[in-house]
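R.M. (postdoc): so does anyone remember the format we settled on? I'll just put the structure tokens first.
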């Protein structure tokens, strides 16, 4: 068994970043739901500028946006992994995929709640 300890290398660090960006661009290329998330992220960002939200509100909003995009990345990774592991239809795989998709729905709910706390008092 090989020893997997590696010394730091700038080339390895750059390769890691390259792979991470490639993963994010794969998400952009294949997951159209991400465009919906990005559209709403742009909307609340514009709203944040218009309503001159506080630094804390910007932090909460940024975390909520990041949480939704993170959950979409994880959901996609689960779906791709399950398609590789079990290409044929299987109810267990369906359940795993649905659970992963549920994380996106849950984080979107959190983001909507955060936006409501920030913007509803400013609107009404």
């Amino acid at each position: 068994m090989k020893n997997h300890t590696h010394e730091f290398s700038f080339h390895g660090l750059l390769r890691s970043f390259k792979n991470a960006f490639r993963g994010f661009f794969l998400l952009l290329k294949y997951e159209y739901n991400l465009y919906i998330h990005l559209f709403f992220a742009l909307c609340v960002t514009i709203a944040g500028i218009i309503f001159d939200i506080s630094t804390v509100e910007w932090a909460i909003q940024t975390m909520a946006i990041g949480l939704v995009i993170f959950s979409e990345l994880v959901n996609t990774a689960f779906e791709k992994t399950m398609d590789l592991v079990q290409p044929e239809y299987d109810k267990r795989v369906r359940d795993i995929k649905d659970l992963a998709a549920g994380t996106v729905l849950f984080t979107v709910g959190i983001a909507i709640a955060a936006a409501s706390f920030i913007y509803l008092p400013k609107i009404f």
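R.M.: ...and that's the designed sequence above, right after the tokens. Also worth knowing: The chain has a mean pLDDT of 93. DSSP finds four helices and no strands in the chain.
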